[in-house]
Design goal:
The protein has about 170 residues and is mainly beta. The chain has a single domain, classed as Cupredoxins -  blue copper proteins (Immunoglobulin-like, Sandwich), CATH 2.60.40.420. β9 and β10 form a beta hairpin. The protein has a five-stranded mixed beta sheet with strand order 1-8-5-2-3. It has a five-stranded mixed beta sheet with strand order 4-10-9-6-7, with no helix packed on it.
Length: about 170
């Protein structure tokens, strides 16, 4: 019970404090040159924690969208001037079951901004990093082999653009 309370408090604190960025971005980043070598799927070691495939049978599907919180086109000018454009993943928290293949669909809803996500395990190891191009869907089937709290962050928009995945024990028969 205490663990649930602690996790709930941490998620609430993260959600409340994670709505701004220290790197102002005044223009869309879709035209910026990207180092494609920085994007990768889990290697053999990381696959012991999470297996990732582009298709296959699934037990559940989750849709994660990118949302513009404060952007140059519509956001408060003072906010954008101070913090740059601010984005968020929605939902920012969801749960899956260990060893249950789950398709996670990422929709980048911004027409002029690339996003990405890095999947970070409970021991703070980056397991994968994937580009989310503008106005595209990127989907993978994740099968988590360890329980715990995993983080998703957009390295292009830290610290505001983040989410968490709670991996629960397998479902009871």
């Amino acid at each position: 019970m205490k663990l649930r309370l602690i996790i709930s408090i941490l998620v609430l604190v993260w959600a409340v404090t994670g709505c701004m960025t220290s790197k102002p971005e005044m223009m869309g980043n879709a035209n910026k040159k990207l180092d494609m070598a920085s994007f990768f799927l889990p290697n053999a070691e990381a696959s012991r924690v999470v297996s990732v495939a582009t298709n296959g049978p699934v037990a559940a599907t989750i849709l994660v969208q990118t949302h513009a919180v404060a952007v140059k086109e519509t956001g408060p000018k003072e906010t954008v001037a101070k913090f740059g454009e601010v984005y968020a993943f929605s939902p920012a928290f969801f749960a899956v079951h260990r060893d249950e293949p789950t398709r996670i669909r990422f929709w980048n809803l911004q027409p002029d901004d690339n996003h990405d996500f890095m999947l970070i395990d409970p021991r703070a190891r980056v397991l994968m990093s994937v580009l989310l191009p503008p106005l595209k869907e990127t989907a993978y089937v994740f099968t988590f082999h360890e329980e715990g709290l995993f983080n998703l962050i957009c390295a292009m928009h830290v610290p505001s653009m983040n989410a968490q995945i709670l991996v629960l024990p397998p479902k009871s028969p």
